[in-house]
Amino acid sequence: MNPMAHNAKDFWTGVIYVAIGTAAIFLSRDYGMGTAVKMGPAYFPTILSSLLILIGTISIIRSFLKPGTPIGSFAIKGLVLVALATLLFGFIVRGAGMVIALPLMIIISAFASTRFSWKYSLALAAGVTVFCILIFQVGLGVPLPILGSWFGY
Amino acid sequence: MNLLYCLAGVFLGTLIGVLPGLGPTATIAMLLPITFTLQPVSSLIMLAGIYYGSQYGGSTTSILVNVPGEAASVVTALDGYQMARKGRAGVALTTAAVGSFFAGTVATVVLALFAPPLAEIALKFGPAEFFSLMVLGLLASLVLARGSLLHATGMVVLGLLMGLVGSDVNTGTQRFTFDLPQLADGIGFVVVAMGMFGLAEIVRNLENEDDRSLLVSKITNLMPSKEDWKRMIAPVLRGTAIGSVLGILPGSGSILGSFAAYAIEKKVSKNSAEFGQGAIEGVAAPESANNAGAQTSFIPMLTLGIPSNPVMALMIGAMIIQGIQPGPSVITEQPALFWGIIVSMWIGNLFLVILNLPMVGMWVKLVSVPYQYLFPAILVFCGIGVFSLNNAEFDVYLMALFGVIGYIFVKLDCEPAPMLLAFILGPMMEEYLRRALLLSRGNPMVFLERPISATMLALAAIAIIVASLPMFYKKREETFRDD
Fold first, then answer.
1. To the nearest whole angstrom, how far is the Cα of B216 from the nearest Cα of chain A?
2. Which residues have CB under 8 Å from A80's CB, separation 6+?
3. Are B176 and A24 within 8 A, CB to CB?
4. Residue of B31, B157, B405, B447 to mutate when probing chain A, most A C-beta within 10 A
5. Do A140 and A84 fall within a single domain?
6. How many domains does chain A have?
7. Is A119 inside any structural domain?
8. Integer Cα distance of B166 and B233 in angstroms
9. How far is CA B268 from CA B234, B262, B278, B280, B313, in A?
10. Domain end residue (candidates: A65, A84, A105)
11. Which tens digits make up the pLDDT trace of B288-303?
12. Are residues A139 and A102 in the same domain?
């Protein structure tokens, strides 16, 4: 019985839970446990982490005993492009400003669609950028530059 | 002025209700940063409007194009769409509107009548009661989570743990901050919500971009016949009652109400044979129930400070940022806020009827907006919204991270909703646990010795036992299967 194949959901969820729980206990070892009367900063996190490890362990054990449903395919392209577009936006919005950061974010993420087309994506980028500048910058006064510091603003 | 915000809220709510792939949780998370500049009353009125407005918009698309815009409208599609195919789309829309309006009115009265006395009782709660109440709230949210119960429990624990990131209130110890100064105040819940509900949802929708070539039914006659009116009365009453009661339960909100109302109506109705083929009862009951439930789910939020669904969790977050401590004292200390929300709900329901019936053609056009133009725009709004929270690039990076994490969890059948509730409650729970144990001199039995606290823990235990029964488990799977 290979749990990674026939009950991958339970197996990997369990592994993630155990890993996070263990890491949290490890990180909170210096925080100070305290006592029940005077709970230290590590008291509640340690309880929770132990609980998480317990749940994760049950899930792993269950993955060996019971068949589950397969995970299904990941939309890797979508995930990478959406994350990338977001990170890039955060990275350049202050320096380059909305005029550059927003169209880039839109076009990169639009690539994730199977029905991507340059014509519509560029039009969308232009429309949304103008809309956002009007609403957020002019209307609501969100402190995002239209053109950023890299251009001497 | 607040009327305008109410109108803006229900308008936006209808809009996102109509647009599939954009739910109220993500929208409210996106708009939260904007509302921080408003008065607390105005911002909460608008956010509330978005929530119940989305219930409304979701039903319109269910009926006309068989695409439920919201989870709560899934059952409306069963009979609503059949009615539309028989050329009775207008009647179905009117039924949904009238049912929703009636249910909204009743639920508003319920809220006004029951919230103050409930808060009165809750004011006597000590830390032990609050701790147990939160346990109950979190465990009850599991009962309705999709997928594996075990995984959902893990998500709750994980959410609680994540809520503790940042400075410990009592000692100032930096917990789980990895020496990043940006994490000293904890992880922003808007960041988590937008990442896990906004970004992760986008990626999930990209998995299968099916062609939404829609056959939009023509709307001819809006007016139900005398016979229709007669058949609609009892289902609307029953739906309202079921929705109001179930809406109060933690973890449910409007979804459970609409499913239960439909199931019960099918059992008791004289015309049960017609169900699934365009029975007017099958539209009236769930539509009344989901609107009633959306409104009564404010009760635990306003009186106890306990969110019953992710949207309420965001509202609590909004209150905290506005400097209002959520809990039983809200009603006495912020009467303008409490009554303002209640009055706005009734007016908002009226707006919805006006907004929806005559303008239904416009909303239908929006359904056909292809997703490939929608999601880049959603992403941009998320980006700007998160950035403007603290003017911090760091929050944008964190949102991207939570988007990835959220998507992985979705693929593993771990529902993010219970996690968000737990995330909001985490710091409060720790504080109540600390105080309760301090008062009891470290004796954990305090939670069982105090009767109210013990009752709540018993209810929590029952909830979890019921949820893990194989019989119920199967039912739950059935209920959530989108057919």
1. 23
2. none
3. yes
4. B157
5. yes
6. 2
7. yes
8. 53
9. 10, 10, 17, 14, 35
10. A65
11. 888 888 888 888 888 8
12. yes
Q: How confident is the model at residue B482 (pLDDT cuts 50, 70, 90)?
A: very low
The answer to whether B69 touches B80, Cβ cutoff 8 Å, is: no
Predicted model pTM: 0.83
- CA B173, CA B129: separation in Å to the nearest integer? 27
User: In this structure, are residues B278 and B88 in contact, taking their beta carbons and an 8 Å threshold?
Assistant: yes
Chain A residue with CA closest to B389: the answer is: A142
Return d(Cα B397, Cα B386) in angstroms, integer.
Answer: 10
Structure tokens at B87: 């050329």
Tell whether B307 is within 8 A of chain A (Cβ): no
Residue B400 has pLDDT above 90, yes or no: yes
A-facing residues of B in 370-409 (CB < 8 A) are 370-373, 375-377, 379-384, 387-388, 391, 393-394, 396-397, 399-400, 403-404, 407
At position B336, the amino acid (one-letter code) is A
Which residues is B174 bridged to in the sheet? Answer: B167
Question: Domain limits at A51?
Answer: 3-65
B434 touches chain A (CB under 8 A): yes
CA distance A153 to chain B (A): 17
Three-state secondary structure string covering chain B = CHHHHHHHHHHHHHHHHHCCCCCHHHHHHHHHHHHCCCCHHHHHHHHHHHHHHHHHHHHHHHHHHCCCCCHHHHHHHHHHHHHHHCCCHHHHHHHHHHHHHHHHHHHHHHHHHHHHHHHHHHCCCCHHHHHHHHHHHHHHHHHCCCCCHHHHHHHHHHHHHHHCCEECCCCCCEECCCCCHHHCCCCCHHHHHHHHHHHHHHHHHHHCCCCCCCCCCCCCCCCCCHHHHHHHHHHHHHHHHHHHHHHHCCCCCHHHHHHHHHHHHHHHCCCHHHCCCCCCHHHHHHHHHHHHHHHHCHHHHHHHCCCCCHHHHHHHHHHHHCCCCCCCCHHHHCHHHHHHHHHHHHHHHHHHHHHHCCCHHHHHHHHCCCHHHHHHHHHHHHHHHHHHHHCCHHHHHHHHHHHHHHHHHHHCCCCHHHHHHHHHHHHHHHHHHHHHHHHCCCCCCHHHHCHHHHHHHHHHHHHHHHHHCHHHHHHHHHHHCCC
Tally of structural domains, chain B: 1
Is A70 inside any structural domain? no
Asked if A111 and A140 sit in the same domain, the reply is yes
Confidence of residue B140 (pLDDT cuts 50, 70, 90): confident
Q: Mean pLDDT across the stretch B463-475? A: 69
Residue B102: domain span? 2-480
